[in-house]
Amino acid sequence: MKSKHRPKPAATPDSHSKIGKEARQEHEMELLVGYLLLSGVVLSIILVLTGMIWEYVKTGSLHLNYLIAGMNFFQFLVGDVRAILTPALIGPRAFVNLGIAVLIFTPYIRVVSSMVFFAAAEKNWKYTAFTAFVGVVLTYSLFLR
To answer: What are the start-end ranges of the H helices in the chain?
Structure first.
């Protein structure tokens, strides 16, 4: 009597190496994303703490006056970079603002890196398109006031 169950075909060395390569690439991408997010948050904390400590040493208070209504992210960022690059304008507020900008920009960098990974490493055009759409929405939102 013949068995109705067919034996599974043996895996070829090529199929194992392909699966292993894909798993390794996914793991490397997960590590990259994790390090990007961690680095962004840690850098942001360092910048904000530096600015706050400097403000406390300078004035004895942790109060910073802010008026950011009516600015989009890029106007905010250009003002921060200008303040950091101009010795007369550099101060605690510039560091706090730069820390805030880094924190806002961190998810954007994550989306861009994912889009590049899906396009270049995996050649997965569907995920590349979805991630590009998220990137466009994020970019648009950074220009909103």
So the answer is: 13-59, 73-85, 92-116, 125-143
